[in-house]
Predict the 3D structure of the following.
Amino acid sequence: MAAHLRVFSTTDEATFSNGEAATVRVRLADLLPLVALAQRNNYQWLQDFLDDEVRITNDLYEVMRAFRCYRPSA
């Protein structure tokens, strides 16, 4: 089953640190399956974007930061 990507237009003038304007907003739920598939199948195009920065919400950042330190008990 193919994943469907939903794209949201934006009216704000948010910019990234390198000066590029944000042009597309994508739900994480739509993006993750596509990125996971590309990584699992080792698609070369994914390598081209590994140094790109993405913007995430503060709450997602905090959860990811806590999860990085998480060590499940045996």
